[in-house]
Structure formats: structure tokens, C-alpha cells
């Protein structure tokens, strides 16, 4: 196999696929990146066996030649060294000459002779069924991930909680994540979709984080294909193949309270900043707790630590309170993350009781999103 | 003690002095920052007992009032939390009201009540003798540190090698560092100095790194006071008091070879880049070695690793060689760092033998600096 490739494009492709490579891969061969040349394409592949990424380099981009080939073939290069060698190459185009798994890399006066992996040992990527598909803008899908992923459980005994639940029913796509202390649920209406189409799957957090890096600040559409145990994201020339978490996601609708004893309308930003400040005093405690005392037109935020002292701050809010004084204690971190996800100038907090879950929503309901938090017992 | 202070100035001062605070201080009280108010000054102090930093805040800067005081006094605040509380304060000026070691911090609607440390327990800073002094521009002194500090030994059995040796003799200031595999020596002529003034001291690496952060990209002069066991740097309103490493620094002049069998004049940048690339192949080996083969008008740089393969690159150079072929093996990291420190378009390398030390100097000798490297035995 012999080819010459434009350095900048090659680095871009290597950076994308190398995200799939695990720090300590299960199999040695998965330390490698597979490079396939056939017809007018160069295809790069990498995988940690749960996430597999493929990047197709077109021969011409904007009429510029990205590569030229003397002969087709396949090689598997050691990712760790290879990417640095390419990054430091002194010329615009880099030449490769591979004879079975012995690879020569030339750039100007520099020449590397490195050992590749045995191509036949590299696992085949699955063939993607194109039967079930929907399309969503990269920007919108990135938001859905951001708005839910932080609520996934970390190191939970139930692996299903370590992913985001994605459900399609009646043309409504619902993303849900919960660590059993809090929950985030975001719904959007999909257009141009067969109303008969339904699915319910759990996508691993790590895979979504990897996808996020590609689609952040991008505008084009993502094609999403799904099968029983796999979801495939295709964005432009990049394909992500992801193994789903198997299991049945719990019914989370019953976790959202529908009674209300106190309702607060407040600036999301002002509440966030006040909680952020007051909780400085308790952030090193195991439970980083702030106490909210809701009066007729103010919220008092209070926190204390035995070692350090206490802090409090009062902010104005629009309050409908059935009682004279409503008090609740909550994790400052969770409260801040929920306000951040709501991302609305004004937020509505609905309390159902001092020891029961409460909800946070955007005041103008411009997005169908709800955050549910459980208060903390302080006595 | 009661005062109000401009947030931005206070943060600046806190950031400077907090650099002295050790991650795990020997004494609990050294987790604190001492704040003294008297006359028209606020003075901040912090120390890890080897490095002590003092920052004086003037009452007026450019006619703007930095602080106002209701009553004078001293407090010791817990640095870790205190700086974050100040950074997140919502108002331009922050108010303090301290009653013995109970401290109230107010900013807008937010109020913190924190415990300070016992002021009497805070160690006194030494009184600085102003007897012996010299002055040097911050920029030049920063360069001298940069050009030598990387050669100090890491975790050596001899603590004296973990500092930079600073010597004054005949109005020449010499900075030297060596880890016994390589050496950097930089000399400058001091003006306006009493030719009788001499000293020879070893300044701990960590202290110099801390000083560097303050004087980087600064142009004013530093006043340097020295005593038997201490050196004091005064830059504007910041004072660094540093305990010296005790002991006698070895005579390093005899380590600089004065015979020469091969002399190479080469672009510093081209050699650096070539070594950087070729050594990619060996960087994970214990000895990250490149082999230089010096011919009549080229240098061939070669490296190999059993696991990975090999790399080589040829570059042009102006060579005076007593032999047909001169070969030497050297640590790529040390060679790159030496070229970097020389910081000259063209460098002169003088070899004294294949197994003896060689030197690198700037070709125009515009700065009196020399790097000495020991080759590595490869058989």
C-alpha cells in the first residue's frame, strides 16, 4: 500500500477516530487505527469495542486533492506514536509505503520505519442496518445531551442509570437521565417522522460525551440509525457505532410530583450566583447542602460548616406560598446544575413538600424540559 | 478591625501571597494569610516557612481609593476558602468586620461569618537587612532563571544541586545549574555595583519558580538584598523572603571542556525540530536517546526503539571535523532543552570526544551562556 496524504486533513481524521481508543484497551489490536484505501476513499477506523468510529476522507475537498494513491490496501498503525509522528511531520503532504505490517513514513528529510499491527486481527465493524432511521439537527441533539447527561449516575450498581434513556413515541423524542437523587427530562417533537416509529433505548454516557465533541457548534443534521442493541450516528463523513446498555429503563414519569404547596418564580442567574456563593462554605462537606427559606417575597439561602462558619444571602422572588414560611434543604451542586440546564432568564420552582421532590422549569415553557430534585433531610 | 476594600485589587494581592502557601503546610497556621492594617497600608503575608511573600496595598492607586478603614488591626484568614469567597463577591467593594478571630465579610446581600486563625500564633517575618544589595531588571533576571533552572537536579541526594547557584565576583553575576548530566552557565556584567561586593549562594528551584511568576513580562527593576542564609527580592510592592540552600556549590568551571575535535554551526531551530521528531520513536524508553552522526556537511539524527521501529533525519550544517565521521549519542530531552535555552538562530556545538562532554553556545556570542552535555554510552 502506497499513498500520500495532506497532513492537516489526516490529523483531523486521526483526532476524530482516536477518541474511540481506550487508555488501556482490552485487546492489543485496539491500540491501533485501521487505515483502508480503496477506490477514491481513505477510511480510518478505531474502536474500544463499545464505541467504534469511522472517518471517511474524500479524495477531493473544495477541488483540492487530499491524497493520491499508488496502490490500495489496509494497515493498522499504533495510534499513540503515529498521531505524534504525523503532527510533527515537516511537510504539507506525507508519504506512506507499507509492506504487510512494516510501514515507512516519509516527510521531507525525515523518515520513520515503524511496525504496524496484523491487519487480519483487526475486528470487522458491524454492517449497519439502514431500516430504522430518524434525523435531527446536530445543534438540537447536542442540547438534548447537555440538558440530561449530567444527571446520569456515576458508578451506580444499576448500569442502566449510567446512560441517557432515549424514547420515541407518537413522534415525541424524550431524553431522560436520573441518578435517583435528581432527574432531567427533555422532550421534543420530531418532524418528518413516521408516527408508527417507536423505540426505547439507553445510550452509555461515555458514548454520548464522545459524540458531543464532534457535533458541538455544528449545524448540519445527524442521521441516527437504530437496531436492537446498537445506535449509529452519522454526521457528515463521521460514523459512530455505539453498543446500547441492555435492560429496561424505569418509568420515571411517576417521579415528577403533581401537587404543589409553594411556587417560586425567580431569576435563574441570580439564584444560581447566590447558591454558588453561599455554598462555598459547605462545598467540602460530604453533603454540600444549602437551606432555602421561602418567605412572602424573598428567598433566604443559608449554609454552614462546623469548621468554617456560615454564609447567607437574600434574594427577591415572585412567590405563591400556601404557608407562612416554607423551608427546604438541597444539594447546592445539584441545584446549580439543574438551574444551569434549564437555561432560562426566569425559572419556576414548584415545591410539593419539605421532604418531597420539587421541579424546576423555564418560566416561559419555551422548551419542554423539567428538572426534578429530591431535598436532603438535615435532621 | 473594620475595613472596606476594592475587590479586584484585593484578589490580585491574595493571588500573589497565596503562592507561598504549601499544599500541606507544616503548621496549621501557615494555611492562613495574615492581613495587617496600619496607617495607610494593608499588608498581606503568607509563608511556607522557606518562602515568605508580602504584598503591600497602597491606599490610593492612580487617585482611586483602594480601601477605607474604620479601625486598624491584624487577622489571619483561612486562605483556601477566603480567596474563593472574595472572588465570588457580587460587589466592587467588600466590607470586613473582625472581632478577634471571628470575621464577618459582607458584599451586597451576601454575608459570611468565618473563623480566622489566632493572630498571635502567626510567625513573625524576619527583619530584612538592607546592608547588601544589588539591582537588576526583572526581564533580565527572569531570563537568567529560565536559562538555568531546567538544569537543576530533581530529587538528588545532594540538595545543593536542587538550586541555582548565583555568584557575584568582579561585578560579574554568574548563574549555574547542573544535575551532573548537564550544566547551564550564564554570566552578565552588573553595572552600578561596588566591585568589592561578592557572594556565592544557592537559591532553591521552587523559590525561583515562584519569583518567576511575578516578574514574567515585567520591565521594572528588582532590588535584591542578601544575607548569610537569606535572599530577598523586592519587586514594586511585593517582597519575597527566601531561605537559601546551605552548603558549598561545586566548582563547575572544570566541567566545561576546553579541547575540541569537531565543531558544528547549525540552525538551532532546524536541529531542535529534527531531534524532536526523530526522538518520538524513543521517548518512552528510559533513556530517550538520539544518535548524531556528523559527516562533512550534514548531521544525521537517528533513533530506534525495539518495540516500535526507527526514525532518521538529515540536516545541513557548517562543520569543522578533525575526523571523517564523528558519532555521539545523547538524551534527546536534554539536547532539546539546551538548544531552547541558547535561544539563538544559529548555534555552535563543540565536541571534545565521543564519550566526553560537549558544549552549545549561541553563534554570535551575544549572550555569555554555555550549555554542557554529557553524551550517553550506547554499548
From TrEMBL, chains A, B:
Subcellular location: Cytoplasm
Keywords tagged on the record: Cytoplasm, DNA replication, DNA-binding, DNA-directed DNA polymerase, Nucleotidyltransferase, Transferase
Limits of the DNA polymerase III beta sliding clamp C-terminal domain: 254-377
A GO molecular function held by the record: DNA-directed DNA polymerase activity
InterPro entries (UniProt xref): DNA_clamp_sf, DNA_polIII_beta, DNA_polIII_beta_C, DNA_polIII_beta_cen, DNA_polIII_beta_N
Keyword Transferase: yes
Pfam hit, one: DNA_pol3_beta
Superkingdom, taxonomy of origin: Bacteria
Every DNA polymerase III beta sliding clamp central domain range: 136-251
Keyword Cytoplasm: yes
DNA polymerase III beta sliding clamp N-terminal domain segment(s): 1-125
UniProt family annotation: Belongs to the beta sliding clamp family.
Purpose of the protein: Confers DNA tethering and processivity to DNA polymerases and other proteins. Acts as a clamp, forming a ring around DNA (a reaction catalyzed by the clamp-loading complex) which diffuses in an ATP-independent manner freely and bidirectionally along dsDNA. Initially characterized for its ability to contact the catalytic subunit of DNA polymerase III (Pol III), a complex, multichain enzyme responsible for most of the replicative synthesis in bacteria; Pol III exhibits 3'-5' exonuclease proofreading activity.
Record note on quaternary structure: Forms a ring-shaped head-to-tail homodimer around DNA.
Name of the protein in its database record: Beta sliding clamp
Species of origin: Gemelliphila palaticanis
Lineage of the organism: Bacteria, Bacillati, Bacillota, Bacilli, Bacillales
Amino acid at each position: 500500500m502506497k499513498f500520500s496524504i495532506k497532513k492537516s486533513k489526516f490529523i483531523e481524521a486521526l483526532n476524530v477516530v482516536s477518541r474511540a481508543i481506550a487508555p488501556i484497551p482490552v485487546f492489543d489490536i485496539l491500540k491501533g487505527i485501521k487505515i483502508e484505501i480503496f477506490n477514491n476513499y481513505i477510511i480510518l477506523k478505531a474502536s474500544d469495542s463499545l464505541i467504534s468510529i469511522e472517518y471517511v476522507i474524500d479524495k477531493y475537498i473544495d477541488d483540492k486533492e487530499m491524497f493520491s494513491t499508488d496502490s490500495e490496501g489496509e494497515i493498522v498503525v499504533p495510534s499513540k506514536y503515529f498521531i505524534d509522528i504525523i503532527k510533527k511531520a515537516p511537510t504539507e503532504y506525507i508519504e506512506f509505503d507499507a509492506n504487510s505490517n512494516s510501514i515507512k513514513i516519509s516527510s521531507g528529510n525525515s523518515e520513520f520505519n515503524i511496525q504496524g499491527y496484523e491487519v487480519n486481527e483487526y475486528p470487522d465493524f458491524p454492517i449497519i442496518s439502514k431500516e430504522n432511521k430518524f434525523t435531527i439537527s446536530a445543534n438540537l441533539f447536542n442540547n438534548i445531551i447537555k440538558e440530561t447527561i449530567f444527571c446520569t449516575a456515576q458508578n451506580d450498581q444499576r448500569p442502566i442509570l449510567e446512560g441517557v434513556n432515549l424514547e420515541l413515541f407518537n413522534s415525541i423524542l424524550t431524553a431522560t437521565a436520573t441518578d435517583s437523587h435528581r432527574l432531567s427530562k427533555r422532550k421534543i417533537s420530531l418532524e418528518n417522522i413516521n408516527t408508527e416509529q417507536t423505540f426505547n433505548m439507553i445510550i452509555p454516557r461515555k458514548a454520548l460525551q464522545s459524540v458531543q465533541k464532534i457535533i458541538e457548534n455544528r449545524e448540519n443534521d445527524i442521521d441516527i440509525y437504530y437496531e436492537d442493541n446498537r445506535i449509529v450516528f452519522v454526521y457528515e463523513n463521521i460514523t459512530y457505532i455505539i453498543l446500547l446498555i441492555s435492560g429496561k429503563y424505569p418509568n420515571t414519569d411517576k417521579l415528577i410530583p403533581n401537587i404543589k404547596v409553594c411556587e417560586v418564580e425567580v431569576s435563574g442567574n441570580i439564584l444560581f450566583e447566590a447558591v454558588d456563593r453561599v455554598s462555598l462554605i459547605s462545598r467540602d462537606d460530604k453533603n454540600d447542602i444549602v437551606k432555602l427559606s421561602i418567605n412572602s417575597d424573598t428567598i433566604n439561602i443559608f449554609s454552614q460548616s462546623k469548621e468554617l462558619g456560615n454564609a447567607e444571602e437574600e434574594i427577591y422572588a415572585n412567590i405563591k406560598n400556601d404557608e407562612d414560611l416554607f423551608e427546604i434543604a438541597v444539594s447546592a451542586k445539584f441545584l446549580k446544575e439543574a438551574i444551569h440546564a434549564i437555561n432560562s432568564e426566569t425559572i419556576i420552582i414548584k415545591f410539593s413538600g419539605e421532604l418531597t421532590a420539587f421541579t424546576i422549569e423555564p418560566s416561559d415553557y419555551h422548551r419542554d424540559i423539567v428538572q426534578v430534585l429530591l431535598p436532603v433531610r438535615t435532621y
